[in-house]
Amino acid sequence: MAFDVQEFKKEYQKKFEELFAYGYEAGSKTEQYIALGDLVRGLYSEDWIQTIMEYNKKKEKQVYYFSMEFLPGRMLKSNLLNMGILDCVKQGMDELGLDLDEVARAEVDPALGNGGLGRLASCFMDSIASTGLAGNGNGIRYRYGLFKQKFINGYQIELPENWLRNRNVWEVRKENKAVIVRFGGDVSFTQEDGDSRLRVRHENTRDILAVPYDTAQVGYNNGVVNNLRLWSAEIPYGDEARFSTEEQREEVKRITEVLYPDDSNYEGRLLRVQQEYFFSSAGIQSIVRYFKRLKLDWSLFPDKIAIHINDTHPTLAIPELMRILMDEEGLTWDQAWEITKKTVSYTNHTILQEAMERWPETMIADLLPRIYQIIQEINRRHIDKKTPLYGEELSQRTAIIANGQIKMANLAIIGSHSVNGVARLHTDILMADTLNDFYVMYPQKFNNKTNGITQRRWVQIANENLTAMLDETIGTEWKSNPEEIKILKAHRDNKNVLDKLEQVKLSNKERFAAYAKNEMGIEIDPTALFDVQIKRLHAYKRQLLNVLHILDRYLQLKDNPNANLQKRVFIFGAKAAPSYYYAKQIIKLINSIAYLINNDPSINDKIKIVFVENYGVSLAELIIPAADISEQISLAGKEASGTSNMKLMSNGAITMATLDGANVEIRDNVGEDNIFIFGLKSDEVQEYYRNGVYNSRDIYDKNPRLKRILNLLIDGTIPGVETEGRDIFDSLVMYNDEYFLLKDFDGYLQAQYEADAAFSDRDRWNRMALMNIASSGPFSSDYTILRYADEIWKIKPQS
Ligand code: H2P
């Protein structure tokens, strides 16, 4: 985008005065940010309109990525980068006496997701635009999003995150595109004289208005600006009388109020289904409206539209598309079914049984009576068709409805043409085990699409120092062609480059140290090894294994304060689901250990623990560039892919890994010498589950080092964790340690002490870091997305 500094300064001043009626110098950071954001939106608006017009004119096939979560992070700098005006704006702001970074920090980071799944959706949106694909996002505009995490006395407290309190400059409300989503009501069928078809009548429904808010997804230096559409629930115009009580109005608002309402009870689960249907239906309605404008035969629908459902949350899009095609557009079941299957594709993100969505049949029957009928019919036809082919037993196991429950994954697989896992190992497990019944029936539907991340946000924006160093060393081609970063390997023995890399890391660690000091009052040494585990708190991700390692060091230093141990800073960032009691206990435990160790002078700063509050995209951007070790220590077979592993690798952290998820592919790319691998392999874990001989109590009894550590949980050493310590101890020792922490403990320790040795050899460590950065190109989400486009969606980048 052509733009010069002088012009920018003039425009910025004008914009500010227009908005706030005084000079920018007197404005608050938030006002200065809003003015800049507004200006930037104005700058891409022409491309935004142009992109949409082009797609319409060419009747280009478009993909719609349906996701209950998006975690875009702050958008200002990423938009500036992709528009190619980041440097110009930075300089302009500078000349105006403003610091772009400070102004950018005034943007509230939208927390519309939980973790990897939501962030993946946002990396994908960036990559879809940046590779020039015609793609749209479809999701929910949560008024509050995910809770804001606070620690009080070490416990997680959840507060509402009012991210919209200052205007959201990026969104555009599109009232003219609003649609009605209907809940409840009565379904009946009528047949008029002379009409061979039954007509569906759906009356007495509770109608909610879905209003879209659109946000531009700016492609990298290519003029493409795609659309992310998030829906908000409102009372339909003119229908206010029907929502006369406060309670009724609240009920409407609640649909798009928070992400993942506590679904440990019936009301929470009901609300969640409402959310899922709400955005699925609204999205499908707007797609159908668009398709009808093209004036094409319905059979061409799958040639123009691909609908991707990110996990099972948007699965109701399948019966909703069926409903619209049949009830509203008059297609037959067979026609509608053919179109639906050809249009929809599905990504599975987990093999954990508890994360597989199932809804009580009665709930769906009450809330969505017509959708319920359609699901029943899909199920009936599925069983009828498959029983003669595969027998009763297998067919019943794949049923969508069983024991009064509706299984969303089964519906997603049966109603789509493609099912993909998110890393090679994960897809293998899906095919061989978790979804094997379906794999037997539909082998051609299954495929792997290993996750990716965008280096634009995770290197170029998050790590400006590394970016500058790379540009200087290998040129700038890697920015548009991430594979090209491999050229860096040629410098693996170049002492000068290795030293520069060390400097870059150090300056990023200093930046994080300043944050820890200013925001948390914790003093850390930037030359210490920064050991990072940042992800949702979950037992299978094994933050606790990390804790056991910390306690091992603690005991060594208590025994001998002069023990020759590498100084380490352990950095955690994690939210626990509000109803996940065990995860919250682990948070309390880590905070208590942090308090104990950080304040023990005899530890002499050899260990510091920093558990950041309210971890999210912006904190990740601060922590990842500062990491030396990337903890990816889930029990093998449980983590579908992981994506923080890729972000950390791209920033030169060395992975401490089990052979799980995409860690396997990271190892293949980076080589055994540049990663620390330990622990059970996925098939060994499977074998243990099968033969049932695992006995954690036995390990506890026989391993004195581990026993001593575990006893710390219950002997009063860690203050304030009487209940938590006991419960966690029991889960590991008395209840047989579901995630095999004790089994993997020795291997983990050994790998950690190897890492210490490697870290103390500066050249060796820096070379490992370099090799990680140089091997990270293939994990660009641009490549992942091009594979989705080519193999699943059948769409091509625009020329
Ligand atoms: C999940 C999986 C990750 C995966 C991610 C994106 C659900 O994310 O567990 O293994 O990388 O989806 O596919 P997370 O645990 O981070 O919430």
Automatic annotation (TrEMBL):
CDD domains: GT35_Glycogen_Phosphorylase. Phosphorylase is an important allosteric enzyme in carbohydrate metabolism. Enzymes from different sources differ in their regulatory mechanisms and in their natural substrates. However, all known phosphorylases share catalytic and structural properties. The modification N6-(pyridoxal phosphate)lysine is found at residue 647. Coiled coil: none annotated. Its EC number is 2.4.1.1. This is Alpha-1,4 glucan phosphorylase. Belongs to the glycogen phosphorylase family. Gene3D superfamilies: Glycogen Phosphorylase B.
